[in-house]
């Protein structure tokens, strides 16, 4: 609670630096908030510019991403941006035909994830996307890998929206202690959204829900003499049920000058084998590329 109160105070203070004005010949300066401006165009471009600059302030490139998941909202070609947080960088590249590529990792480059997604606009406020996320343990756990194909339905626009994502996880992890490879499979669900709170501020929430999954163990240790006289124990070792977890994220995103955004939030991790909650803060700085 103290973290959210402090965040609100900071955002109100920052709001004083996100005011702008338009200079017009008939009436002079018109003061406005940058969130109310769709675009800003120089009538007389600087001398070092060969053409008129266009700066979009609707932040559509940012609004297609929550904390760690994406929605199906449309975006312009070339809408690239990077998000830097305490865990690591996140880069999203917007290509043509509503196709985007994302790369997410930690500051130690472990693990590394790549996200591929294609979006369609069904009508004005209904959008659909399909894609896949693949990851690896890189140098730290090179035999650890996984893939998550998914589909996302997004309702709303860039200011207020709700996204529901369903996918299926296939995850391989290697245990170096007993020389075993474990395969986990199961569904995953994500409910995310954004709600406009003030002119420059949105409430953003995100989630990952992984129900208990089947775990298949392929180990030379388990196929030895240890379980030869215990067939039931061998069966339990080969197939087991892994406890799932739910990860929740909620915070505030504030638009700054120069098309940048600051996102402050908190994360909760809930383990399904018991109510274990591990909160930690999230601070993200989002800027176009």
Can you identify the CATH superfamily? monomeric porin ompg
Q: Name the helix and strand elements from N-terminus to C-terminus, one letter apiece.
A: HEEEEHEEEEEEEEEEHEEEE
Helix content: under 10%
Query: Can you tell me the CATH architecture?
Result: Beta Barrel
CATH class: Mainly Beta
How many domains make up the 3D coordinates? 1
Record field, number of beta strands: 18
Topology:
Layout: H1 2-15, E1 19-24, E2 28-33, E3 39-41, E4 54-56, H2 60-63, E5 81-85, E6 89-95, E7 99-105, E8 112-123, E9 126-137, E10 141-156, E11 161-175, E12 180-196, E13 201-210, E14 213-219, H3 231-238, E15 239-242, E16 245-255, E17 261-271, E18 280-288
Antiparallel strand pairs: 1-2, 3-4, 5-6, 5-18, 6-7, 7-8, 8-9, 9-10, 10-11, 11-12, 12-13, 12-14, 13-16, 14-15, 16-17, 17-18
Short description:
The protein has helices at residues 2-15, 60-63, 231-238, and strands spanning 19-24, 28-33, 39-41, 54-56, 81-85, 89-95, 99-105, 112-123, 126-137, 141-156, 161-175, 180-196, 201-210, 213-219, 239-242, 245-255, 261-271, 280-288. The chain is mostly beta strands.
